[in-house]
Amino acid sequence: MLGLLVMLVVSQAIAHTGASGIVKQRMDAMGVLGDHARIVGDMLKRKTAFDNDAVEMAAQAFIEHGEQIPALFPDTAASRTGSETEALPAIWTEWDDFVALATRFTEDSKALATIASEINTGEQSDEEKSRVVRTAFFRASRSCSGCHERFRLEQE
After folding, report:
1. 1-30 pLDDT per residue, tens
2. DSSP string, 18-40
3. What does DSSP assign to residue 98?
4. Which of 23, 93, 120, 148 could crosslink 152 through cysteines, CB 3.0-4.6 Å?
5. Is the model's pTM score more than 0.85?
6. Are 55 and 133 in contact (CB under 8 A)?
């Protein structure tokens, strides 16, 4: 799952070249989300030290992004076919499902935020904190990747 997130972040950075308007706005927003996911992922893979403040910041960014997702995909020609868009037409033909997945991602991110907040005041070891965060983080990550699998152009 972490490898998938890293691949998504790298592919997003490459895809930003030439994007403009609403397409660039949503790619930039996804890039911010990917940056936070990479930070938490590196902690969970023990590449970096556990930092609960970073987890809380990531969760807040995920919540804000999740709440913005529908607005980043207006049903306009520029949004549907804009330069470099990776959005599939299914977003607009299956709008209710798309919004439901964005809502699920937001709710899963809120659960991550709650867990991060609770463990920040606890006396757990970093290993225990990491284990608790891992479950919530992967749940939010699955929501994110589930939307990409269904509504985003497959990356090569």
Report:
1. 555 454 544 554 454 567 889 999 999 999
2. T--HHHHHHHHHHHHHHHHHHHH
3. H
4. 148
5. no
6. yes
